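writing this on my phone so excuse typos. first protein, seq and then structure
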Amino acid sequence: MNTELLFREDAYLRSATARVVEVHERGIELDRTVFYPLGGGQPGDTGVLVRESGERIAIADTRKGGTDGSVLHVPAPGASPPEPGERLALEIDWERRYALMRLHTALHLLSCVVVAPVTGGNIAPDKARLDFDVDMGLLDAERITRETNALIASGAVTETVWITDAELDAQPERVKTMSVQPPRGAGRVRLLRIPGIDLQPCAGTHVRIIAEIGGIRVTRIRSEGRHNRRVEIALAS
C-alpha cells in the first residue's frame, strides 16, 4: 500500500495523525506519515508514535517498505506495537530533522561550488559529505567554505519542481550524483530548484530559504580511492 508522504508537501510538518495499516517484524506501516524514510544519503527520521492512551512508541528508524510504496516505522527494542486500525499521533524528532534539512540543502550548494562529478554522499545530524571525481589539488577548504557561505547568504527560496521521466532522460546533465539515480517508473520525478544556483533531482527534505542553513565549515578533505575525493562539512552553528 502506498503511504501518503506528508513531508513531500511540507517538510516543516512536525506532527500528524495516522491509522495503522499493518504491524510485522520489519516495522509499523501507516496510511500516512511525516517520517522521512532512509534514502538518497539522508537517514530515516526518528521520533514517537502516541497511542490514544498516551503510551508513546519510540521510533528508532524509518525505512522504505518496498516496491509497493509503503513506509516502515521501526520501533525501538522493547516497544509495544500498536494494533492494525488504531489511530496514532505522529511526532518526529524535529531538532534532528531540521539539522538534516539544513545540511542536505547545503550539499546542493556544495555541488555547485565544487564543479565535478559527484560519486557519493551522506548526511548525518552533525555532519555531511560529498565525494567528487576531481583532482585533489583543486580542493581548497578555505575557498569552498567561503564560496558556499556566499551562496547561503544570498537567501534564495527553494522550490519543488516536477518533470516527467522522459523530460529527465532528455536532460541527463541534471543528475549530478553518479552513485544514486533518481527513481523512475512513477511517471514523474521531483527536483529541487534553487533559483539561479541549482536544479537537480532530489526526494529529500530541504529548508525553504537557504539562509536558514546559517553557514557551513569544511571540516576535512581527504582521498577515498582513485576517483573519490571526500569533502566533509558541518554547520557553523
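second protein below, same order as before
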Amino acid sequence: MTTHPDPVRIEPVLQPAPDLAPPFSKGGLIEVFRRRYLLKLLVQKEVRSRYQGSLLGVMWSYIQPMVRFCMYYFVIGLVLGLHKSFPNFAIHMFSAIVAMHFFTETFSSGTRSVVKNKSIVRKMPMPREMFPVASVIVSAVNTFPQLAILFVASVVAGWRPDVVGVLAAFLGLAIVTVLGTALALLFAGLNVFFRDFQNIVSTFMVLTTWIVPMIYPFEKVATSGLGHNHVFYSIYMSDPLTIAVVLMQRAFWIPTALGKDGFPDQLGDVGFPYLPHNYMELGLLMLGVSCIILVLCQMVFRRLEGKFAERL
C-alpha cells in the first residue's frame, strides 16, 4: 500500500497594514493652486449660485456699491457739507469703498464657505482651503466692476497715472487680499464648530466703515486731538486696513485733488497730514504682517479641518 506525503501547507504572508491617512490633502494653500482646474470649477459654481434666479445678475455688483456710495455721499458729503471743504470727496470715499467692499465680502463669504459646501466636504477628498480661496476669487471678480468705475471716475476728475500711485494701488489691494484670505481661513474653520462666528463677522462689518479713513479724511485724524495722542495714533496706524485704504486714496484720489482748495500743487509736496509718514514703507510692513497672519491662520485651519466632516 502506497502512502502519500502530506501536502505542503503554504502559510499566507501578512503584509503590514498601511498607515491611516485623512481623506484630504495636507498640502494647504499650495495644494489648492496645484488643483487649479478644481478651483476653477468651484469658482464657477459660486458665481452661478450667487446670481441664480436673479434678473439683473452681475449688475448687482454695480448697483449695491453705487447705492452705498450715494447714501454716504448724501449724508456725509451734502448734509454735513464735507464736499465743500474737501476736494473731490467722492473719489476719496469711493476709492476706500472699493477696498473695504473687497475685504468685507471676502471675509464674510469666506467665513461661510466650508459650512455652505458641507455636502462636498463630507464626500470628496480635496483641500478644505479650496472653499475660502474660491470665495476670495469670487469676491475679486465682483469687486472688479467697482474698480473699473473708480478708474473711469478718476480719469474724468483729472487723474493721471504715476509710478508711485500705481504701486500704491497694487500694494493696497495685496494687503486686503492677503489679510482677507487669512481671516476667511480662520473663521471658516471656527464657524464649522460654532455658527456664532458668522454673526461675529457680521457685527464686525458694521465697524469697518468707521475704523478706516473713508467717510472722513486721514487729515482729520492726524490734526485732531486724537492724532496727537501717540497711543491712539499708533493703534490706528497698526491696522492693515487703514494703510490699505490710504494707499488706494494715494493712487486715485490724491492726483485728482492737486491744486484745489489749498491742496498742494505737486505730488512731491503731498505728505503729512494728507498722508501718513512713509506710507509706502508702512504698506510693505503691513503686507508682511498680513503674510504672517496668513501663515498662522493656515496652521489653525489645518488643525481644525480633520474634524470638519464629523461636525458637519
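The chain has one domain: 28-48+57-311. thats all i got for now
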